[in-house]
Amino acid sequence: MSLESIKYERGRLEILDQLLLPLQTRYVKVQGVEDGWKVINKMQVRGAPAIAIVGCLSLAIELLKDDCLDKKIMRQEIEGKLNYLVSARPTAVNIKLAAEELINLANSLSADENVTADEFRERFIQSIEKMLIKDIEDNRAIGKFGSEAILKSLEDESHVRVLTHCNTGSLATAGYGTALGVIRSLHAAKRLEHVYCTETRPYNQGARLTAYELVHEKIPSTLIVDSMVSALMHTRNISAVVVGADRVAANGDTANKIGTYQIAIVAKYHNVPFYVAAPLTSIDMSLKSGDRIKIEERPDREMTHIGEHRIAAPGISCWNPSFDVTPASLITGIITEKGVFAPDKLHEAVP
Ligand SMILES: CSC[C@H]1O[C@H](OP(=O)(O)O)[C@H](O)[C@@H]1O
Questions:
Q1: Could you say which enzyme class this protein belongs to (predicted)?
Q2: Considering the entire predicted model, what is its pTM?
Q3: Quick one: 67 exposed, middle or buried, by C-beta within 10 A (0-12, 13-18, 19+)?
Q4: Would the ipTM clear 0.90, i.e. be above it?
Q5: Which of 135, 163, 188 is at the close of a domain?
Q6: What tens digit of pLDDT does each residue of 263-315 get?
């Protein structure tokens, strides 16, 4: 059983093929940006932070093999390859923000006459490698702030019952996770009574990935079908919901896995606090609200088949948006590595 979604050392990158989990553990070599684009687009690796990290590491792998000595050509090629990687999946913002930062770095290294081509390459690759460490640090901070916020809002409860959706753990990040990081922190503090995870049709990130992580760490948990959320809140006294994010707009509207929006509506009806856990790299302050977030639509086959087995009638048309947008009005707080913010206070979090 492996929870290491990304294996990296200088010159070597492998990703855990999440399409095969939980039954098979197989790592796929990523030898450049073409491979990086493919493993992201096919969802062999997925999760907003992991997409950004794997995409950028695939560029680092390619750059290491490049012996170009012309910094202007290097800069131009870097920009083109980063824009190509961003196109692999449109909704998560992390890779777009990482690409913008790296293009700015390439521009300044290229313009600095005191920097040689080799120094340019080395500093650029180091900058990408730091993403791995920073992501895990951010996730542990998210876990701390999120668990404190949930426990604080429920002072009369010694142990909490939490619902989560999709997969936001070590398989969606460089490690520890965002929403699942909050759940790990609650468990580590011995304050988690139980976590419920939705199966998250049609890719089944919950049944195949979150359940895999929870079982691996012996965290008390139960898998539910997506359509059970209302019945669960009606009968199981859920303390809080905590989910991840692919793109949070400046007003707090949040794009996340399809099904998140209806969970937020049910939580509102049952007065259950609804939290979004996301690093600042998931926040897009350039978008005023969520209605401008591009929602990726995935192939029909992800709905009509489970593996090779067809489960839907041949000929039926399908609509398969991979995400939906939860309005800020349904969100209690956004848990970041800088602390927990009300949706209308996000500007205080983003530098
Ligand atoms: C910390 S992962 C954030 C986010 O990414 C997942 O989407 P996908 O599995 O399609 O990449 C899901 O929306 C998670 O909440």
A1: isomerase
A2: 0.97
A3: exposed
A4: yes
A5: 135
A6: 999 999 999 999 999 999 999 999 999 999 999 999 999 999 998 999 999 99
